[in-house]
Structures are given as structure tokens and as C-alpha cells.
Amino acid sequence: MNISNEISLSNRLSELGKVPAVTLGFWLIKIAATTLGETAGDAVTMSMNLGYLTGTAIFAAIFAAALFFQIRASHFRPFLFWTVIVATTTVGTTLADLFDRSLGIGYMGGSALLVACLAASLYVWHRSLGSISIKRLDTHKAECFYWATILFSQTLGTALGDWVADPKSGWGFGYEGGALLFAGALLIVIAAYRWTRISHTALFWAAFILTRPLGATVGDLLDKPIASGGLALSRYSASAALITCMLALIFILPQRAEKLEPIRIERD
Predict the structure, then answer these.
(1) Contact assessment for residue 17 and residue 76, using Cβ atoms and an 8 Å cutoff
(2) pTM for this model (two decimals)
(3) How far apart are CA 204 and CA 190, in angstroms?
(4) In percent, how much of the chain has pLDDT > 70?
(5) H-helix or E-strand containing 58?
């Protein structure tokens, strides 16, 4: 006779996860964070003239430090979580630019490479743990897969956003056109979430991935030269405004931890 019991494993973090529940507020903060990643990344590599390699090293160090504290945390801490997210967007921006421009891979090559890395991360995660749902981030191993996937998606978003928007070596949509394209794709995902039976986990990751190139194109629209189709705003002032916006959203909008799914084990 099979008896299904809900049990708590010793390596389970808690009944509540360490990532925020997926709400409208989550997506608003996520888009602000991805836009900030673009302007702040460009501020360090271009305005400060430090270059893509140095910028990547700086932001990778910040990401590693923030991730260390996030993994060690015992519960959801909004400011810590969003700090790690911003770190992934900034290092993603500089790393994608390093691949696309300094290493000469190009937008198409960089995007293809990062799509492969992202797909591999999701595949290995699912094969190892049986789920890529944020409701199953119940071990440190699952958390590591989660953050690796996010880092790949944020880096891909920069490469993809540049490829779509660039008028010379990309698809030529421009920054406004690129932002509208990705916003439209995001609306399709939202419609699928509401009115189809497509896996909500798959749709979550689709939306998560799409918000990055949306933020990248909006960020470029804000700070690129007018001759290139941007608004030529200061990268420093744009980044400061986005940080202020993010902090206001975190303070104003309710933030609660995602509830973990109970682990069920079949026993004979």
C-alpha cells in the first residue's frame, strides 16, 4: 500500500522561500532593475571609460558578494534580493558588450551563445532537481541553478536588445521600436498566462527573460546620443533616477516571500 506523506527535509530552507511572490509589483521593480542595469553598466564602461573587461570584473565582484549573502540568508530580504538582481543586470550588460564588441562575436553570435547557455542551465536544473519552478527553491543547489539562470537571461537580454535595436549591425528597430517589440511580446506572454493552459512556470521564465531586453532598449533610449536615436540623458542622472524609482517601489508596493510547495514522497 502506498502512503503519501508530506515531509520536511533537513536541507529544506523554510516553508517560505527567499524570493518574492510574483505580483504586478514584482514585474514593475524587475523592469526598473533591468533598465538600471543598462544605464549603470554603460556609466561604468563608457562614461567612466573603464572598458568592458574592467566593468565586468567590478560588477562580477559585486554580484558574487551579494549572492553570497543571499544564499546564506534564512528568509526573504527585499533589499538584498533586488541588490542581487541589479548586480546580475549590470554584470550582464558589461559581459554581453564584452562578447559582442570587444571579442568581436557580434550581436547574433553573442545572442546565440547566450541562448545556448540559458537553455543548458534550465535543462540541467530540471534534470537534476525535477523542477525549475520558483516554488521549489527549497535547497541551496536549487538556488544556485536559479541565480545562474537569471545571470544568463540578463546577459542574453542585453545582447538581444542591442541586436534588435541597433540600426547599423542589428535588425534596425531602433530603441523605441525595440522597446515596443519586447513590450508586445511580454503582453502575449501575459495573455497566454491568463487564457491558456501553458505551464505557468514556462511562462514565468519567458516573461522574466523578455523584461531584460525591454529594460535594455529603454535604458539605451534614455542615454544613447540623439544621433543614434537616444535621448542623450546623463547615464549618472538616469541611473540615480532609476535607483530612486526602485527604492520607492520596494517601499510602497507590498513584498512577500513566495510560498514553497510541500515536498511529497511516496512510501510503500
Answers:
(1) yes
(2) 0.90
(3) 9
(4) 91
(5) helix 51-72
